[in-house]
Amino acid sequence: MHYVNAKGILSPHNGMNLYRGCTHGCIYCDSRSVCYGFTHGFEDIEVKQNAPELLERALRSKRKKCMIGTGAMCDPYMHCEEEIQLTRRCLEVIHQYGFGVAIQTKSNRILRDLALLKQINEQAKCVVQMTLTTYEESLCKILEPNVSTTRERVEALRIFHENGIPTIVWLSPILPFLNDTKENLEGILDYCIQAKVHGVICFGMGMTLREGNREYFYRALDQYFPGMREQYHRKFGNAYEIVSDHHQELMQYFHATCEKYGMLHEVQSCFQYMQEFPERYEQMTLFP
Q1: Over the stretch 253-286, which tens digit does the pLDDT of each residue have?
Q2: How many CB atoms neighbour CB 166 within 10 A?
Q3: DSSP string of 151-169?
Q4: How far apart are CA 4 and CA 142, in angstroms?
Q5: Calpha distance 157→129 (Å, rounded)
Q6: Kindly report the CA angle at 181 between 178 and 182, in degrees rounded to 5?
């Protein structure tokens, strides 16, 4: 772990990454890809120590309240967050200035900040996002070895719903020959129904592989699923988009189930929901 002073913190679309790198060890992680230009080891976490100050400066200068997103590239609740509390401090800034937050994680460490996230949601808006990959716990511990298990994440989703905070699930990735089964999809969607999630994001039944994350993924296959690397080579070669043979039937089941239980399931509608800032609060701030 090492510390840096960042030049800026918010992207043009109001997203932020407080850390760079990850210690969750997910075998499929796209963030390991060479295209992201890491100049340090992926597990050597870069901490943007001046992020709260940069965020405060950015929010203070904005003329209109909006949603702030975090967690798209690096999980804001990695192990180091327990000690550093960088995410916590940035959430306090967001709350102080009356903005909303859409936060994505695979860790139930986010429950530490339940009270603060509830305050943000009551004042403006908070959306908690969790990635769910596999219903089977034993497979989860292989695919995502250093993170909260699927059941732990689902329990966190349930707690947030009980506290009035809407939740979104990212159903990804779906790995051919591993979790691209109807049984797995049924299990995950049943969890979503039980936890009363607001929506489910699914880009398709498959995954992506490119230089950097492909090599890491294949090493994991050699360790845990001998012979499967060869299946990937024969089927997909060096393709970037890896699509399951069961894509069409699984997507049909996915959309039908979400529609039946009133969960958002079109990607664009999920993103629109997360990006929308409540008009009632904007009016309150314009006319105090």
Answers
A1: 999 999 999 999 999 999 999 999 997 544 444 3
A2: 20
A3: HHHHHHHHHHHHTT--EEE
A4: 32
A5: 8
A6: 160
Question: How is residue 183 annotated by DSSP?
Answer: H
What is the reported pLDDT for 280? 57
Amino acid at 220: A
Summarize the confidence of residues 159-170 as an average pLDDT: 98
Question: 140 φ, ψ to 5°?
Answer: -55, -40
Cα separation, 247 vs 235, whole angstroms: 15
Q: What's the full length of the chain, in residues? A: 288
64 burial via Cβ count (<10 Å: 0-12, 13-18, 19+) = exposed
Judged by DSSP in three states, 200 sits in: strand
Average pLDDT over residues 29-36: 92
**Alpha-carbon distance 69 to 83, whole Å?**
22
Arithmetic mean of pLDDT over the chain = 95
User: What are the phi and psi torsion angles at 69 (to 5°)?
Assistant: -105, 150
Q: What is the pLDDT of residue 253?
A: 98
CA proximity to 264, closest of 192, 164, 181? 192
Q: In which residue are the tokens 């992020």 written?
A: 51
**Integer angstrom CA distances of residue 64 from 53, 211, 278:** 19, 40, 12
pTM over 0.70: yes
Q: Give yes or no for a contact between 197 and 167, defined as CB atoms under 8 angstroms apart.
A: yes
Q: Which two tokens stand for residue 6?
A: 């960042």
Q: At what angle do helices 182-195 and 150-162 cross, to 10 degrees?
A: 30
User: What is the SS3 assignment for 68?
Assistant: strand
Question: Which residues 6+ apart lie within 8 Å of 29 measured at CB?
Answer: 22, 213, 216
Tell me the C-alpha distance between 226 and 70, whole Å. Answer: 36
